[in-house]
## 1
Amino acid sequence: MLVPQLINGLTQGSLYALIAIGFVIIFGTMNLVTFAHGEVYMAGAFVGAFAMSLWHLPWFVALVMGMAAAWVLGFLIEKVAFRPLRTAGHMPPLLITIGLSIILKDLAVVLFGAENRPVPSIYEQTVRLAGVQVSVLQLVILGLAGTLFLVLRLVIQGTKIGRAMRATAQDHEAASAMGVNVNRVFSIAFALASCLGGAAGVMIGIYYNAVYPTMGGTAGLKGFAACIFGGLTSIPGAILGGIIIGVVENLTVQFLASGYRDVVAFLVMVIVLVLRPQGLLGRKLKTV
Amino acid sequence: MLELRGVSTRYGPVQVLWEVSLTVGEGELVCLLGGNASGKSTTMKTILGLVHPVRGEVLFRGRPIHRDTPAQVVRAGIAPVLESRRIFPQLTVYENLLMGAYTRTDGPGIRQDIEAVYERFPVLRERRGQLGGTLSGGEQQMLAIARALLARPRLLVMDEPSMGLSPLYVEKTFEVIQDLNRQGIAILLVEQNANMALAIAQRGYVLQTGRIVLADTAQNLVNHPMMRKAYLEL
Amino acid sequence: MKTKMVPMLLTLFTLLLVAAPVAWSAESIHIAVSAPLTGNFAEYGQNWQKAISMAVEWINAAGGIKGRPLEIVYGDSKSDPKDSAALAQKFTSDNRIVAEIGDFSSTASMAAQPIYDRAGMVQLSPTTSHPKWAPGSPWSFGIVGTQAGEGPFMARYAIERLGKKRIAVLHINNDWGIASKEYFVNAATEMGAQVLGVESYFETEKDFTGVLTKLRGLKPELIYVPSFYNEMALISKQREKLGWTDVVVMGPGSLYSPKLLELGGNSVNGLYTSAVFFPNDPRPEVQKFVKGFEAKYKATPNMFAGVAYDAINLMAETIRKVGTDRKAIRDELVKTKNFPGVTGKIAFTERRDVVKDYRHLVVKDGQFTLFDK
Ligand SMILES: Nc1ncnc2c1ncn2[C@@H]1O[C@H](COP(=O)(O)OP(=O)(O)O)[C@@H](O)[C@H]1O
Ligand SMILES: [Mg+2]
């Protein structure tokens, strides 16, 4: 049962990683933390769920719609909560995103009800790989997450806007002096981060067959933990952090009990941070 | 070419520049001198559009640019060499150069210009795949200048390019500046190192707590009693 | 003469009929109902209210209780222990009220319990199933059955009816789930089954892949899952996706809800459960209730409507026998041995709760059906 548990952990962890990367992109470029990221993920999940269960669209269309919706929502959040307060320090945007997260959650309760909303199953088959029975859906999710990591890497490393994002992250005044429209970069970074969160939301909905208004709470926390775990500003670190949290959780279920999964996952995180305050792949301090 | 007319700039409630006026002519090398916190960098940022003046105007080739975004200023032909170099430490040398060409869209032209700066600074070609942060201070300064050149500027605005460099690289930096100026690029050189700046500049301004207190030819400034007292005693 | 008399008599009759509800000669008998009419559990409270109103209508249409109409005083507790206690104060100090029905959850019922106990008024809860509840006061009664009865019933179902001996348990980690698990595991062990492992999950859990993978490693023939339809749907779907098909899934009557079928789809086919109330039950009292409810409310009654209907009828029957004295009602209620409820026969144990006759159910082609093998 160890190999199936590892696959469970890997699948779940890759979705945490997608959320975590969102925090990394936002923190990396803007030096700010958003508390509404979990709710953006929830919104993406709902759009994906509706696309599949109400409008009977294929899952990949649902995925694209969920990502698009999250993109738009992220774009708006940046405009409303971050843009006007760019020079106001860390606290005001933080408080605004806490408020936004509550509003979005309550809005979802009012609009959709507090109950689980079912998401249709896809890929219910399993395959045998090297003697182990593996769920096709898990493979699909792993493949999708991997693809998104790759695409993201290509965008950030290989495109002009990706380069502008990295430059802005390192020194936004210098980037601005080079002619980079820093506001636009922030907008795009926030939207991109949100879009990945939305993708994770749609996939989680499909994976567990349920979406619900409060789903962003723990997911946001886990994603944030994975981001800190991986060093706050490192995308590979966030991926590693997400996967470690996912795997540790499932091993905890296997060898301890289901109820301890979050406790052990956060405990491991605390231990890593005590030993390596900069996170797994983080640098000591960002030089400005 | 560049003209500041009665420019006043403030950071929130704190006014830093008071009616600063200066000009840089076509192909001219002008230095802006002044002690610490006198407002030299703020003057630069105002020109570059990083901050906007509350009063007065900045004209470049006859067109007001003081409401423009930094991108528009760069496109108009002004490129910055920022204080303490400010290269992007986690981008490669090559990527840093590309950032200098950020507002340009002419791919072949950019490649050609990168070749040209590699010719001028062979060390950058050698290190093109290395992260900017791993270069020595002097190499970073060369990169900062090269990056600015990638914008194909008519005017370079340089903020204390000699600061923190070894004497050898200070020497080299001033050579490069002179060289660029001889090729026809106008330069506004902000310096605390008044001796060396006045040695290569044609004209100079002296800024004191945000006001221009002296404006003259380099020669006259070197001989000015106030200058001798305040800035040239090394 | 004759021709004049007919319209006159008809008019008189009509007047009497129309005026009937207000034309009672005698004073009403008041029964209080403490229920969640708003809030999170409003759905359940409203089911009660529908069933009780219908029963009262029928009773009064048939002449009330010895000529006196029955009247319900509703109180909205939101199933919150603070509110149910406050309502208990209000009801017990109202001299017109002879007995109370409620509350919905164990917590709300038990918070009000000492107040009814001190005042000496019957508190009959249609739904409280905590084994400690009814024994807590001589004035407390429960008619929904307890896990102490359901656990052994389900164990017998699994072991004797289905012949499954290797069993694992996955339960929700709250008072109810723990009690459910205890009674089932104890009974199953006594009956000679092997309980291979017990796992639990928190109410908010949505990811069951880990815990299912673990249980699968134990190779059980049957997993018993004390849970609610929401999680059961997820558990079933995720189990299916993991390809774990060589196992029988069973859970207590909490799963008996159309929502389970709606949410679980194909994955809940073959799931075994039980019910105290099954609308397709051919017994006449059940069919009378179901038909009446459907005609009035255009919906099939569920278990919550069923137990509330039984509660009010049992109360009315008792008052019919002994009158409106609070103490007399209690003393008569205790003796109930053979009341034919729509949720089964009601006979109080000495703890003043009941051992229900559960129905064996299995999900077949997306429907709950009676299991009769
Ligand atoms: N971003 C800023 N916000 C507030 N005050 C600033 C800012 N930048 C510079 N100043 C103040 O403006 C004055 C001039 O600074 P600066 O232009 O950097 O001087 P210099 O470059 O001549 O040393 C200083 O008193 C400095 O503290
Ligand atoms: Mg300065």
Note: The longest helix of chain C spans residues 42-61.
## 2
Amino acid sequence: METAHKTDVIIIGAGPVGLFAVFELGLLDMKAHLVDILDRPGGQCAELYPEKPIYDIPALPIVTGQELTDRLMEQIKPFGATFHFGEMAQKIEKIDNGWRLTTDAGTVIEAPVTVIAAGGGSFTPKKPPIKGIEEYEGTSVFYAVRKMEQFRGKNLVIAGGGDSALDWTVNLAPVANSLTLLHRRDDFRAAPHTVSQMRQLVNDNKMKLVIANLTDIKGANGQINALTLTNADKTVQDLPCDTLLAFYGLTMKLGPVGELCAQQNIELQNGLIPVDTEKFETSAERLFAIGDINWYPGKLKLILSGFHEAALMAQKAFRYVYPDRKLRFEYTTSSSNLQGKLGVK
Amino acid sequence: MMIRVTGRDGSEQELDAIEGWRVMEIIRDHGMTDPNVAIKAECGGSLACATCHVYVDAAWVDKLVPASEDEIYMMDEAFAVQDNSRLSCQIIMNEELDGLQVTLAPGTEP
Ligand SMILES: Cc1cc2nc3c(=O)[nH]c(=O)nc-3n(C[C@H](O)[C@H](O)[C@H](O)COP(=O)(O)OP(=O)(O)OC[C@H]3O[C@@H](n4cnc5c(N)ncnc54)[C@H](O)[C@@H]3O)c2cc1C
Ligand code: FES
């Protein structure tokens, strides 16, 4: 086994709430390691609505999802948190006075306290609602490209109209034996430059563009041999192929966090983790849940509420991390102790 | 005021509607207790998910405010899109829409 990182607090999820938790923990001398399946911080704010304005963050009359993320990153800088991006928190085990977390990349982290700030769950590709599609996944149906070589010589259909679909169309056209881009309309929201590259490939007969909806797949034993397409006039046609790469955006799935909770005998409430409203601790000691992932009477899925939850969580976490120390209540405005930690003194 | 919603299982329900609410919100409210009309609506109406996709009954299509460019873009992430497809979070209830008939599209399962 890899040698374990040791820290004070493990945070699952680097969304706005996980990020602000670093701040509240840091003021109380606790260091944190964060794990997120995304390749950057910000959770929903950065992934789903980076350009959209938020109007209900106290004292920030307007801020976009990305700006909020950037500002939180700046605010927590003094506390030197460690980020493990692109990794899924997979397994959590109880150890003496704490937890051991293992990610899908094999990273191991141990800490006396774990905070689940997993929001709506981890981001995963949206799958076409076609019966039996699971049977083909990983063999002839894919939602991401891990290695381009995987598609060499294939008769490939790429479905979608956004940047991922168009980028991979342009990149895989020379690799695949044949390539067809499938989209519901002859207009694309991907970057105009990539769209014109794709159009050029079509003109040069290096690929095909088909305008229709994907409605079914045909094949056997995990291997597709055709897609059933429905045209705008509701007529149906088959498109022969051996590989499908589908890009219909992302959705959030509870994923491993559900299993983590099951292992700890935490009973979920509509897919959310019940906590108390004093410490935001779960029914398992030293395991907290804050932000969109938790549930308590009156819960509102707002960034504001998550920030509040982070502050109260930190108070209790302190007692686990420093059982012998006394907790002192201080204001950042007037405490030279806190200002020293923030690096402003 | 009411709307008629056909669930993904084909059953039809009449739901009380409130002026000014999004059709998605009306469906979501009822869906909490009735799984036949449960709707994912993952982004809560912010035009960021396309999991509130409905088919609007032909008789009603022209009574709706046409889809914005952003809505048309977002529908690229919906499945089995048809000419009468709309994202229900973009349809705001008003008196003229009393009786509106919509069908939940595939991909809206919570
Ligand atoms: C379009 C839109 C508009 C919104 N507008 C507002 C608004 O105006 N005001 C407001 O207050 N709120 C708004 N919200 C809600 C707000 O974004 C959420 O309340 C907030 O993002 C919750 O933060 P979080 O940190 O709890 O979770 P998230 O932002 O969901 O972050 C959770 C992170 O955890 C990661 N994760 C989960 N499970 C794992 C795992 N097992 N391993 C590794 N990583 C994992 C995910 O990848 C994700 O990055 C909006 C949401 C959307 C979608
Ligand atoms: S609820 Fe997400 S687009 Fe309508």
Note: The pocket of FE2/S2 (inorganic) cluster (ligand 2) is lined by residues B 24, 41-43, 45, 47-52, 74, 87, 89 (CB under 6 Å).
